[in-house]
Every structure is written in C-alpha cells, then in structure tokens.
Amino acid sequence: MKIKKILKRLLIVSGSLLLLLLLLTSVALNFVFTPKRITPTVTNLLNENLDAKVSCESIELTFFSSFPHFGVKLKNGVVITPAFSGNKSDTLAQFEVCRASFNVEKLWRKHDLQINNLSIINPKIKAVIHKDGKANWNIVKETSADTITVQDSTSFKINSIFIKKLHIENGSIAYHDFVTKAHAKGDSLNVTLKAANTDKKLTFTTTASGKHIRFSKDGYRFAKNLKVALATNILYDKKAHKVDFDKSELKLNDIDFITEGHFQRDTITNEVQTDIVLEMKVPSLKTLWETVPQYIIKKEDIDVQGNVLLKATAKGIYSKNRLPLTDITFKIDHGILKYKKFPGEIRHLEADLHAVLNFDQPEQSNLTLSKLFLEGTGVDLKGNATVKNLLKDPEIDANIKGDLDLTTLKKKFPIAEDIQAKGLAHIDINALFKSNDIQNNNYNNLKVKGNSVFTNLLVNAPKDTIYIQTEKTELVFGRVAEAGSRKAFGKINVTNLKLNYKKQHDLMLAGLVMKLKAKKLKDSTAALAADISISQLKYAGADKLRGVIRRANITAELSPKSTKERPAITTTFTVDSAGVWQDKKFIGIKKGNYKLLVRKNKENIWMPRGTVEFNNLYAYTPEFALPLRMGHSKIAINNRAITLQDAHITFGNSDVTLTGQINNMLAKRSPDKMINATLTLTSNFIDANEIMKIMNPEAAKGQPEFKQVAESKRQDPKNSSNKKTVFKIPENINLVFNSAIKKLHYGTLDLNDLKGELKIEEGHLKLNHFELTTLAAKLTTSLNYVAVGDRKAKVDFDLNLDDIEMANIAKVMPAMDSLFPMTKSFVGKAHLRMQGSAMLNRKMDVIVPSVSSIAALQATDVMVLDSETFKEMAKTLMFREKEKNTIQSLNMEMIIEKSHMEVLPALVEIDRYRLAVGGIQNLDLSYDYHVSVLKSPIPFKTGVNIKGNLDDYKISLTKAKYKYYFTDSERLKEKTDESIINKKKSILAKLNFK
To answer: Is the pTM for the entire model greater than 0.70?
Structure first.
C-alpha cells in the first residue's frame, strides 16, 4: 500500500511538474520568445558564425509541433555570400519556409548543431566553385586557437553542423564549377535524405527527382531538358575519402537504369578517381517502347520482341583539366512489333551504336552507327554512319537509303487520330564532311550525293504544332543535280509547300527552284552560291509579322571566313511585288531589285551594305497614320543606316523630297538605339493640319489595306481642313531637316516660302531661325514644341514679324486679339518681336492666361482708325483732326504675364502732340492706360487717364506721370524710375531690337 501511495504521489508530482513545464514552455514561446524578439537575435547569431549575410522575415521557436525536440520555423530567408574577386555579392540560397528541429543539449553543452529534421519549401540555391577552388557554400567561420583561449564568455560559437534528415520540396539549383568547367541546372527538385553518422562512416539514404536538368562540361552539352529520378544508398568512408553506391535505381526520361560505382578523392591533388556503370534495368525492346509518348501512337495490344543493350561506363580521373573515359553502347537485336488489331507490323528492327569519349585525347573519340535497319509495313530504311574525332573536329560519314509510305503507315498502324500523315518519301543520301568545314564555310570540302523525293506529303501533329504539306519536293545532290555543270552542288525543287511550326511560323509557297553551286575562290577556299526562283510566297510569324512575295529571282553567294575578312553573303534580288507587315505597320514595293553584301561584324551580327531600287514603295505605320508612297527611288544601305537621294514621298495632301542619311533605321528598337538623321527636305505643299490630326494621341487610327495604299491618289489640297489639333512627337527619333517648303497650310493660314532648320528630338519639335511669308509679312521664328499629355502642349517661342499690317497681327497670333486689341485700330505696317512661352489647348490655340512673354513693336506713319475711345481722347486733347490721325512714330515694349499685358512708357507722335503712353491691358479687354502730354499747343504738361473697357470707359485729366522718360535733359532723366528704363532696355536687348 505504501509503495502504491508513493508511486501515486510520484506520478502526481511528475505530472504536475511536466504540466508546469509545458505551461512555462507555452508561456515562454508565446509571450517571451516571440518571433519579433528572437528574429534579430538569431540572425545576428548566424551572421556571427557564418561568413555570409543572413536575413529572414520571421523566425519562430517551436516545441509542440516538433515534440520532443525544440525547433525553429523560418519564413522568406535569404543567404547572401560576400563579394568574390571584385564581383557583386551573390545569393547563395533563398527559401519560402524552412523548418528544423534540433538537439538542444548538444547545442548547449558541445556547441554541435545536430539537426534531426530539416524541411525546406521552394528553395533556390546557387552553388559556385570559384577558380581558386573555394566553394561559396563553405560559409562556416573557422575558429582559431587564439580565439578559443581568449573567447568571450558571452559569445556562442557553433563547432559543427550535422543533418540527420533532409526534405526539399520544389527546389531549383544552379551549379557552376569554374575549376572543372562543369555547369548544371535543374528545377522541380524534390529530395528526401536520411543520414547516419559514425566516427568512420557517413551513410545516406536518398530519393530525389527533378525536371529540366541541364549539364555541360568544357563547353560540351551532355544533357538538356532531362527528367531524372534517383533512389540510392550512399556510403562515405571518411578515412579513405571514398563514396560508394551499389545498385542504385536511376530513371532518365522514363527509362529505368541500374547504376553502381564509386568516387574517391585524392586529398593531395584533389583529383577524383571515378568508376561508374550505368545500364538499362530491363534490357528489352518492350521497355524502350514504353517510353514512346502515348499521344503519338497507341502502345497497348502490341507484341514487342527484341533485346536492347544500353550501357555506359565512366572510368578515370575527374579533375580541373580531366574527365573520365566514357564508353557508350546501344544495340537493338531482332526487334519485332506486331499489333493484335492492326495489320501493320515492324518485321525487322536492328541498330548498333558505339561511342567513345576520350577527353584526354579528344582526337581518339568516335561514334559508330554500324547498322540501322527498319523494315515493315510502309517502311524500308537502311543506314550507317561514322563520326571520327568526335570531340575536336568531327568528321562525319553518313548514309541513309529507303522509302516511306506515310499513307500506309497511317492506315495500318494505330497512330494517334489527331495526327495526319500521308504521301511518299524516297531517300538516298550519302554525306561526307567535317564539322569545322561547315562552321568555316569551306563548302568545297563538303561531299554530298544522292537524292530525296517527297510526293503529296502531309504531316500534321497538332500536339507538337507541326504541319507540313507539299505536292512535290525534290532534293538532288552531286553533279547529277545539273547536267554538264562541274560546279553543281545541289538542286531543290518545291511545289505547293505549306508549313506551320509551333504556331509561330506559317509559310505558303507555290514554287521554289534553288540551284546550289560550290564556287572556288582565289585563296583555294570555296563559296556556296545559289540561284533561287520564288513564286507566290506568303509568311506569317511571331509578333504579328507577315510577308508576301509575288515573284522573285535571287542569286546569293556565301563566302567563307578568311584570314583577312569575315564571312559574307553577296545577293542580288529582283521582285515583281513584295510586302511586309508587322501588326499594323507595313511596307511594300513594286518592280524592285537590290544588290546587297551582308557581312558579319565584330559582334557576329550580319549587317547589310548595298542598294535597293524600286518603281514604287508603299508604307504605313500607326505612329504616322497616313499611308506613304514613294516613286522610283534608289536607296543605299550601309549597316544600320540608309541613304536617300531625292526620294519623293507623298502622304495625304502633302509631298516631300528627302536627301540624306538615316541612322539606326535597321537596328533593333531599344532605348539606346535612337533613329537619327540629317536630311534635306523640300516640298511643294505640306498640310500641317492633316499631319497634326493623325499624330494626335486620341485620334482613331484605322489601318488601310495594302491595295488601298497602292491605288490611292494624292488628295486635292483645296479640300484640306482648317482644324488644328495637338499632336505628339515620338521619343525614339532624332531628325534634323534643312527645309525648303513652298507652301504650308496651318489652321486658316497659308504660309509660303518656309526655310530653316527643323528638328525632331526626344519628343520635341524645334524650329531654328525658320523664315517664312504669311499675309504679305515676313516671319522669322525659333520655337520648341512638346506635347503635355494628350490634350495640351507647351511651346517656347521667339517670333519676329517684319512689315506686317497692324490689323493682321491678331490673324497670325490670335492671342494678341485679347492681349493687344488696339492693333485692330491701326492701319499701316509694323515690326513686332516676341519671346516667351505658352500652353496650347487641344485645338492648338494659345491658352492666353498661360502666356509669359516679352514683346516690342516699332512702327512709323501708322493711321489711327475711327473709334469711340480715340474720338473722346482727341476731343479732350483738342486734336485738329478728330477722326483720323497719323502716328509718325510708335515704339512700344510690353511684358505679358498673369493674364495681362503691361505696356511700358512708349513715345507716340500724333497731330501736334508728343505723347508718352503706358498702362495695363487685361485679358477681359478692360484697360488702365495713362497718356502723358509731353508736347502740345498747351504750354504745360498734363496727363490723361483712360480706364474701363470698350463699352464703358472713363477719360480724365491728371498729372503727367511719364514726363521725365523722353527728354534730353540729364537733370530731368534723373527723376525717372530706373527699373522701368532697365526693363525697356532689357527687352530691346533680348529681342535684338535697335
């Protein structure tokens, strides 16, 4: 009884203590060690122990979810390695979620981090071994002996890290070894790894899978878009530095393999001794047959016989400069495929391929396809091939001969219903050539003979988006290609070809005849020449690109690379009609020809040089939505530039003739590739209203048909519109036009004899000292126009109007009607100059309150017309002529700002009077002027104030405010307001008025 009571009490106490411990742990995790508090602490701890910068969105301690161990949960972590050899810092790893449970006792007592379970979701890893052999993942800081002896008791150092179980979900990795020049990439990686650690051995149990695996070594690509799955046990001998794996299961693109072998590292040379064997798990043709995609052909109800041998071995040294000797064997023996419900069968299938990859002696690497035999219903193919010097300069000798009846194959085999196949194919080709000869364009060494004929061929595989149809295509190689020609190399005849690939390239061709020749050059190399005839070609490609050629004849010559020059293509082209569309843009020519030399530049980009000549060219682009027509012209092309010589272009009501060079016209559009040009522009007539309308951002821009453009005629300028509208200049062109325009229609004005420099630059329209004639007046202007949004624009201007009728000033500049209405009360010619800026509304009219300008007007012998204001002032000052008077001299300086115009004191001589006039003219047509009488029949100076508007004004006598401004007396001049005098001088100086 006592024992029971004691046990009962112990259980109660233990349970209470455990409950209390759990309660304390819960309180600590939820209120003390919160993510907000521990995140900076842990990241600082990691940064102290790791030679990397670690950051994390949140770090949370766990206990109940990782019971009986403590754990940690990290979200959105990033590990950035320090810069290497001047490079920028790089991201070693990042992840969305990371969970880990660890042994607290070992961490606290021995400073050993033993992670019992590590789970990482969506990680991205970039592993790099630099040229000096240092790996970017070796980021644990080493602790020196001195550091141990004087170690701060408050610091915490981790001596070792060991992971017992690892799980990676949906990871991606990029591996770059710059020592051995090995590179690998993969994604959709899922890994489960269990590890057991002793003093002598480290054991791993691993399952892994991944997609899109790529691997290359020394520039050789060994895998691309590979799907992999692996299950293996790995044993690592710590003392021998040896890794062994036995009967590991490997799946490559749905083929199961068994692999075994070992790696052993030499600790002195760092070389790795490799001995690996990879062999097909079930060596039968049926196993290989199962890898054929189901959507191509039915795989059920079939008897598959035959043996398959697929084996690869890699044995030797793996190091910075060496790779193991690799031997690959692939054989199919006595292959037979018979369907139970279909009459089609493969009666005989054999293949024998052997390859040796010797990286130490690349010239001894070779591949031999000693036998390829396929015989059955609708198919009879035989072939063989050898490739010598496989890794250095492959020399290929290939033969293939046989016949295919695709119609029979489709009917007698269970090929997928959505795949169409019919027609006959005969192939008999022998080719002997070196890979370097092709790359270096030494076509004289290329030996090809035989022929292939495809009759009524149709292949349509919707899943692979491949469609090809041809009535007849014939390929003939060797001297039989053209009787009597020693230079003959080959001949291709195509009739009614339709081709569609990946829904990006759609080609239709009524006829093609191509004759190939190998032409000897002076330096004993050979050029590949071709005579090509095309009829009715239609093409549709990516990015809404389309092209049409009605009839064309082409000669082309591909010259090989020599010691002096880079490879080049010389072509001549004659075409009946051709057109190219891209989205809503198009360009077309009629009766054209070109002569071009296309040569590779230093960046290995093919660049053209030559001429293009045509009878008519038609073009359209939405940015300038008027169809363009160009008559007979010859255009020179030099790399990315084109040169025009008297190219006459018509669009809408307008016509221009251009001479000069346009740069980057043929370059791929990018922010640093601006179209720029300096051109001479002459024109008989330009309809500016029409151009502004089609360049308006809000204008509806329909796309005309090619035929509509070709048949369109120039419109009658008499029917041109008088409506202006704001327009926008494209920002990716810089053009300079030295212009001579006979007539330009702008608004209701006809401007004549325009001459000067016109610039289109980064979205701005600039006129530089432009001269023109309008309303019998000479106008010289410099301005800068830029659109501000879709409905407004800003203009900076400098205008000089010479010999203009005073009444016409408001017609040329309608804003002056509001700011300077008195101009309509004068008859006579004046000189007006203005300089400033203004905003324009949607109709290109000046927004008068926005005008900020200075102006000056000079006139002589100006007649003042009849007006109520003039009559009243004449009556007040007792003019002899009360209705009409001549102003002998009128010089005025004005400042326009804040919705009004200030007229600075100006001298006016009229009748028997010498007057000084100044004041304010408001936008609402109200005014407040003062007239100082400086000379009159009355022997004293007086002043007149005129205030009000045209309908309601008041005239009153007052003192003469401006009596000191126009006198020769230095004593009286000292009484003037110097600021006003300085304003007048400054305006005259800026406007270059004498």
So the answer is: no
